[in-house]
Amino acid sequence: MINTDLLISLSLIIVSGLLSFSLAKGRARLYLVNNEPLRSMPIYHGLYVSLWGMLPSLFLLFLFLLFKSNILSALVIPYISDTTRELGSDEIIYVKNFLINNISNLKTLIDSEFLTIDKAKSLSDKHSFGRIILFSLIFILSVISSIASFKSLSVRFDARRKVENIFQFIFFLFSTMAVLTTMGIIFSLIFETLRFFSQVSFFEFVFGTHWSPQTAIREDQVGSSGSFGAIPLFTGTLLITSVAMLIAAPLGLYSAIFLSQYAKPRTRDLLKPILEILAGIPTVVYGFFAALTVGPFVRSCGEYLGLTVATESALAAGAVMGVMIIPYVSSLSDDVMSAVPVSLRDGSLALGATKAETVSKVIFPAALPGIVSALLLAVSRAIGETMIVVMAAGLAANLTANPLSAVTTVTVQIVTLLVGDQEFDSPKTLAAFALGLMLFVITLILNIFAMIIVRKYRERYE
Amino acid sequence: MSSNNFKKRHRAEKRFKAYGLISLVTAAIMLIVIIGSMIYKSIPAFTNYTLDLEVNMVSQSLDTDIEEINYRGIVRDSFFSLFPEVQDRSEKRKLSKLISSSAGYSLRDFIIENPTYGNKKFYFSVLFTDDSDLFYKGYVDVYLPEDERRLDNQEIFWLTKLQSRGRVESKISRNLFLNGDSREPEVAGFYGATIGSLITIFVTLVLSFPIGVITAIYLENFAIKNRITDFIEVNINNLAAVPSIIFGLLGLAVFINFFGMPRSVPLVGGLVLSLMTLPTIIITTRSSLQSVPPSIREAALAMGASEMQVVFQHLLPAALPGIFTGAIIGLARAFGESAPLLLIGMVAFIVDIPASINDPATALPVQIYLWADSPERAFVAKTSAATLILIGLLIVINLVAVILRKRYEVKW
């Protein structure tokens, strides 16, 4: 139904484009046949006309697709009967979706209990009228713009440059996609966060130490409002990130040093794939491994030593996350250390320093800014990591610095707040966006900081 | 004294080298432990114990519609006939719980496919439930006290009796590879999730590859250095480091809430993942365009080619292997990604195999997450098997990238 609409419009556009292409190309060929000095090749004449013929109508179609659901629901809503309206919003949404899905199928509309025969017919008529309008609009637009561009063709017309300019403009539009994405992220997060802060005070969110977003069903129940103090989430994130970095930083750095300074080419070829495979394992696998193997292992180790350890301890989740980040730290710091000028290294070795002394007293200090930024990037990745903590860390927000207890993180809460049924006005759902904004800002600051450090450091050696 | 110092320094040197080796070996051990534990835990998932049951369809009158026969009752009756001594109702109920509740459905499917069997007596193999299956595989510790295991003494007695009659067989589990999700572990498979993943990745490829490559070409060859293009570049570099879950929030707020797209569909999943993959593709495409030597470009320009012709007829073909490699690596990352998909509703329990970009679907990594959350013990094996398949697929994808690079890469 809706897909056939799309197919019909697309084929209308393409057919008119092909038609104008061959017409314009044929006319340009005529010039050649008559030995007139044609400036651009015929194919560019064809492309010029067909591009002008297709782009405006494609744009129209794109706009229509963007707002299709809004248009359809505006069309359908007057047809929802009063009896349905009395049954509440769920029923209205159900009927609306039913009508939208079956709008092109008159028989289903008549058979359904939601519409009388007359109303079904009028809805169906309106829909087919709308379709005809859409198709004719697209067709007329293509024809008009093709004709208009066809008129500007002549022997001396520089079709190639014009076509290339059009393409360049299209390319520019494509490249704004990254900007659009960033803006989409920022605006959607800020918009929902503002809605959240209209219901929950900003200070409670940033400085509150109690997190229990579950709102009760009835107004008069205890704790019906939920509380949104995000401090425990941030301390939890910090705790797990610290555990991860305690593992990833030394292991990653030493791996990078060994691979770049000590390993012979053959050992390097043998050992490097290990880190590459580690980097390629999906995080959900790490999460499963943490929940299934590492968590119980840490717990039984703790019990053996007489400690009480939660099954979903921060230590287990953090340790596995650390393993995940090792390749990241290693490859980033490898890049940084190999960017240190060879003359420094050779000078140190020539003075009689051992390799270890060269690394720790010459290369490492020289590469320190880069290594710091590598570690910052690793931290930002650990903070944003989701699956491991969702599967292996806890749900309860405990304000503690004990790695053996269960803590929860920002990402875990985003997932638990948004997975499953949700209504979009409750502070519970909106809180996820506020957390997301915090996460975005923190990782952004870390990344920018890392980038600035790297840039400064690069300038020093160039 | 100086020789003493010398020794000390060389000991330090050796220690330093050893630290490096130890770190790498630790990483290797972790890798082996992860893969090894997945392999070890997935073993029970690949086989299923089945029971050869003599099904009696003779009594069925030929007139009844073959879809309306009480297949469940038939299976249950023939199963009870193996244990004539069990007469008590509650005991019978307990007995019937030993074989999978899917048995009736599979008999129905078999009869619909082979209607000639509709009035015959024949042997038909039915699945056991996950608990009985685990017992046969030796994962139930019979020495535990009765109330601590999933099967009580009576059930274990029945199961051993069945086995001693030689009716029980272990077969390769076809369900695992050919089915969608299910609440019954013995029936659940990851085929549906794999297809969902493939559709999602297809959408990602179709969207992110052209947009990414064209963006890279524009920034590398056409863009005039100004504030706008600088801003675009900063944006791309930042997007590459944004946590994936933020893209999920974006998808939820923009695609689902604002544009009213449906939840749980591969279309939205692919859109979100392509936004996430875009920076990777742009960055790798740019670096492979940069690696084409300037002499080629200058030669083409000198022959009178336009900038556009230089790019599309000379630079792009030369850079293509590198671009493909980068795109494949980006897509492999998207294939293993699950966090953004959780937020746009691709975590639903979906039995049917998705067939289009608008069917509700889940993805293989999300299926792993869902199964890992299930309480049934048999799902642990299923989850491990699914992770192995996921890792295997990713390794294959990456190998393709490596081979492509080795084969077609041009050394300038």
Note down, in words, how this protein is organized:
The complex is a heterodimer of chains A (462) and B (412). In chain A, helix 2 packs parallel to helix 8 (159-175). The mean pLDDT of chain A is 87. Chain A is 76% helix and 1% strand. The two termini of chain A are 61 Å apart. Chain A has a two-stranded antiparallel sheet with strand order 1-2. Chain A is an all-alpha fold. Chain A folds into two domains: 2-156, no CATH class; 227-461, MetI-like (MetI-like fold), CATH 1.10.3720.10. Chain B has 412 residues and is mainly alpha-helical. Chain B folds into three domains: 2-43; 46-172, no CATH class; 191-408, MetI-like fold. Helix content of chain B is 64%, strand content 5%. Chain B contains 16 helices and three strands. Chain B has a three-stranded antiparallel sheet. In chain B, helix 8 (191-222) runs parallel beside helix 11 (266-290), helix 8 (191-222) packs antiparallel against helix 13 and helix 10 packs across helix 11. Chain B is extended and about 95 Å long. In chain B, 42% of the residues are buried. At the A-B interface, helix 3, helix 8, helix 9, helix 11 and helix 12 of A face helix 1, helix 8, helix 9, helix 10 and helix 11 of B.
